[in-house]
Write the structure tokens for this entry.
Amino acid sequence: MKLNLATVALGAVMAAGPVMADLVFPSLSYRTGPYAAGGIPFADGYADYFTLLNERDGGIGGVPAKVIECETGYNTEKGVECYESTKGEGALVYQPLSTGITYQLIPKTTADGIPMHTMGYGRTSAKNGDVFSHTFNYPANYWDGASGAVNYLLEENGGDLSGKKIALVYHNSAYGKEPIRTLEELSAKHGFELVALPVDHPGQEQKSQWLQIRRDRPDYVLMWGWGVMNQVAVQEAANIRYPMENFIGIWWSGSENDVLPAGEAANGYKALTFHNVGTDFPVFDDLKTHVVDTGKAAGAGDQVGTVLYNRGLYAAMLAAEAAKKAQEIHGTADITPAMMRDGMEALEINEAKMTELGLPGFGPAFSVSCENHGGDALVGVTQWDAANKTWSLISEFKATDGDVIGPLIDEDSSAYASENNIGSRC
Amino acid sequence: MFYREAGDFKVSYVDDSQTFPIKFDRYRYYVVLAVAFGIIPFIINDYWANALLLPFLIYAIAAIGLNILVGYCGQVSLGTGGFMAVGAYACYKLMTAFPDVSMFIHVILAGGITAIVGVLFGLPSLRIKGFYLAVATLAAQFFLVWLFNRVPWFYNYSASGQINAPERDVFGIIITGPNAPAWATYLFCLIFLTVCAVIARNLTRGTTGRTWMAIRDMDIAAEIIGVNPLKAKLTAFAVSSFFVGISGALFFAVYLGAVEVGEVFGITKSFLVLFMIIIGGLGSIFGSFAGAAFLVLLPVVLKVVGADMLGWPTDIVAHLQLVIVGGLIIMFLILEPHGLAQLWRVAKEKLRLWPFPH
């Protein structure tokens, strides 16, 4: 207790923060720890897009954007510290890139009135904006992912999956458990058998799970993995000579880091996605001129064009567009978190807008509304080509099974609403 | 000059056996209490509370608990994370089952449940010692985390397997949930820490503590002079787990609000608390405070200095932090194996003689 005095002195130093002038986009990144391989490219893409906006357009609506990076190491305690230390600086939107931290921040951000965007992760039922006023998870969520994978398999099998066996290899955490509910419903609907195989954090040890897959010979394997778990799973699948084209990962299990270590053996591995891959978009030319060539790229600058870099870029683009929308709605360039929230809720992304931004066909068109914070749930599939070391989109962004997901979202969000006494808002 | 017994006459046995016999110590203790209870709650904000003070207070409770077991009774335990998880899940089940009961009661009951679990896992300590006992408690750590991940009843069948603290109050003041004011959460934890520290201090000064220390120093000799090893070891496990359970309950309900057992209460948590008492000082209540403060504050200070002030890349700072904490642990083990508490003790000895050392 004696050290409390030292704490007080330290806090006084930190209370003297900078003046609020820029549009602040905190980046709760993780460049260290077992999940760094995924955290680095995302953080680089997120920061580089805002650097591009500042360099090329002079910011968003004339106000420069400022990215404050805070290292979480995918650790919830550090995530809390990062949240508390950045929220006083006028943070407009949080993107923690961690389902664990998301669960922690949902009530906190709502109480503090700061929006949070969990793009393709976090709590799926946050799609119901009626209950989760400050949480957004457009353009797609895990349940869309599960349904998208099953739809893709249905397509491959001529619309019939009955009697098939599908294994789910998942990270034994809130993140990995998320799709089980939907997959169970879908297995009842389509008549396939679901086998769930948990892998404990951090996921280096998967021998027994893959031994079981080798014994059971499921027709398809789905994976909800992150970080080092992905590479290990792809390698193990190669070791038991599991046919790669029958192995589909969620979007967090589909980056270069995950397949490169297995080399040739990973050829044909598939992953879901909600945005396009590669660098064949005009915006990358601008990035090269204004950011990379001028030495302003975040991190080592070697991640441009990787899957997760593109995802970070996409996240930043959506945040910037929401900020523009907010400026438009409220008629002021200097927006507050509350205005940002309104902008996110009124966000509309269509092909014309993406072309204008130099990202034609980069992601699905969608719109956000008060009831729907999750967009239109369009999911595509990519495949890895080990010879050329490239991912390519093999199935366009297609609709997922709203009949199954809708009631599940209503059920889960109404349970949350009654637990926390949240009334209807829309 | 400032710090001495001379002239501080004790005229009764009560005076003579008080916790802080030296006047300066006693006043310092009152000043710290006055600042902690009377000043900090009025100037605290969310950042101080959530980033620094709450983790410090909660880890200090856990460190006191573990120090009783390892530092005073000599039973090495690597199950702290698992026992904290027991406290957290017990608190969660109680909070959701009895929403109208005060949080104070929930937290104390959570500590009690953890004490029972701790005694169960302490039973092997009657037969095995040292490293073997450490391995047995390590089994407790993994078993408990596995159990809370595996059995849906513990997390009320939620889809994600997470537990979330609903909003609960004490006398109408919200303590848990996002709307809890910083001063309330701080005071709530501070009250628990103060009571735990006073209880621990007095237990270790009394018969119970002496039997623990006798077992620690030489268990066979202790048995010969009439110390019951069964009673001594199991009470140590019970009291230690009680404190650790309280800290786990506070960690979940007040500090984090949402917990995923594998990530929050994993083996790293056990090691962290163990490092706290090693750096702070084994067998010292003050050492538990010092160790907790050191390991909670150091990363934040390094981050503030490195990333916020000097503007270094965040990953470099995060890696430097590992290097510095690791280096400091090695340095402490070599230069001062008895931890920060021993440094404090030496400083006090020097102060007693100052300015006229022999």
